[in-house]
Amino acid sequence: MVRNLRKARRGFTLIEALVTVVVVGVIMVALWESLSVLVHGAALVKQKAQASQIAADHLAEAIATWQWQTGMSGDDAPNEDPDQPAMYHWTVDAADFDEPNGTSDLHQVDCTVSWNSHGQPYSITLSTLMFDQEKTPTEN
User: Fold this and answer.
1) Handedness of CA 108, 111, 112, 117 (dihedral sign)
2) Which of 6, 10, 93, 137 falls 20 to 30 Å from 70 in CA-CA distance?
3) CA gap 100, 111 in Å, rounded
C-alpha cells in the first residue's frame, strides 16, 4: 500500500511533460495565426469604411459644384500623420448612361477610391446618375 502511494505522488514523466509542451506550442501557433487574420480583417474593414466615406464626400462635392462634368481627382489621408504620404487616391469620372429611350442627357457619375493594404490593391466605387446642367427631365 505504501508503495502504491509513493507511485501516485511521483508526478509527470518526462515524456508526458514534453508532449504537453508540444501540444501547447501547436495550440499557441494556431491561436497566433487566427489572431493575425482577425487583426488584418479588422484593419481592412476600417479601411473600407474610410474609403466609403471619402468616396461619398467627394461624390457629393462633385455633384454640388457641378465638377462631375469635368472630372476630379486627389489624395486623402484621413486620421493619419500629415507628414506621411496619402493612403487613398480618389477620382470622379462621368460617362454617358445608356437609356432605353436613347436620350443622352443622363450621365453615370462614379467616385472610385483606391488604396494598397498589406501588398494588395483595393478599391471602392460609388455611383449616381445626373442630368445635364442645361437640361432638366421636363425639357424632353
Assistant:
1) negative
2) 137
3) 24
Q: How far is CA 4 from CA 9, 11, 13, in A?
A: 9, 13, 16
**What Cα–Cα distance (Å) separates residue 133 from each residue in 38, 55, 88?**
47, 22, 30
pLDDT, tens only, 11-54: 778 898 899 999 999 999 999 999 998 998 998 999 999 999 99
- φ/ψ of 103, rounded to 5, equals -75, 155
CB contact at 8 A, 75 and 58:
no
Tell me the C-alpha distance between 72 and 90, whole Å.
Answer: 8
Q: Are 115 and 49 in contact (CB under 8 A)?
A: no
First to last CA, the chain: 106
> Any idea what the Cα angle at residue 128 is, between residues 131 and 120, rounded to 5°?
145
Is residue 94 within 8 Å of residue 87, measured between CB atoms? no
Give CA–CA dist 7/41, Å, rounded: 51
List Cβ neighbours of 118 (8 Å cut-off, separation of 6 or more). 40
